């Protein structure tokens, strides 16, 4: 991920109402207050939690293991996140499979020696892929869709070594300190795992959440807002230059959106800019200061350019549909924005308050700010928002 988006200012405080959607996956209890599910369950990896903690995990005695092979299906548009973890000796020796830039990344620690390797096909294409991880003497092998093998030769495993004790497995997180890994990455993934066959065992897995959120049956690229929260950035992460202005581009079916798409607020000032879709009137309204522009919601792309003496809204790259506002009542507004807030999917109020009825419902297929894709994983956001996929 580009460092451009990582320069978020410290100390951003945001109180979000954690109102989940009532989604659930049936599970059994285990007498310890934890629900249990089958290893073949559908697991949405992006569910709200401590982002490094697994969603499901299990422990098995080595005496029960007959096959050092696990397989499962993965579907994601997200280029980065942890998928599968396993360890022995209570975390002294461990294995992590993740995605980095959409490519499989395996990291292994054995007897204090660390090895990592990345390669294979791009997996963040939104299609279901079958992954199989196996251990064959001195090699750990990853197969994707029956081929495209990624092999790690550790050179550390003795054929005479007798494994004993317990093996821990986890999906969607790790059970060790993240600092132990060679390659650091953002852990939470907007993706799904299903049809798991873990070491050919049928033991149940413990669930760390009260309920597992299910996966959408069909997905498309984008960021999905279910009407329960928003994402917020410090505008200081965006290079705003008065001479060249500030440009935001939004893609999606605006006729299927309802609520606040975008709002911007400078520190200590009233809300300066909003973009709101209204399904009832079938209009999209842009408000800047006390001035408004209303547009029919039939377009699929909107480019908003903020300049010192002009604000322009261009629909579907059709120059005949360019609307303008001259911000004479806000001289120097671009300078004040540099320490402000930009919210996607909600209306900024006093402090960081928002009006619940103003949350966006709908899919933004793509968001760009200053010509760069906006990654909502790097925002402070409500956990119900899917950063990389929308229901299709």
Automatic annotation (TrEMBL):
GO cellular component annotations of the record? extracellular region
The Laminin G domain sits at 49-215
Show the SMART domains listed in the entry. Answer: LamG (SM00282)
Q: Where in the cell is it found?
A: Secreted
Q: Which residues form the signal peptide?
A: 1-24
- What PANTHER family would the database entry show? LAMININ G-LIKE DOMAIN-CONTAINING PROTEIN (PTHR24040), SEX HORMONE-BINDING GLOBULIN (PTHR24040:SF3)
Question: What's this protein's name?
Answer: Sex hormone-binding globulin
Organism the protein comes from: Cottoperca gobio
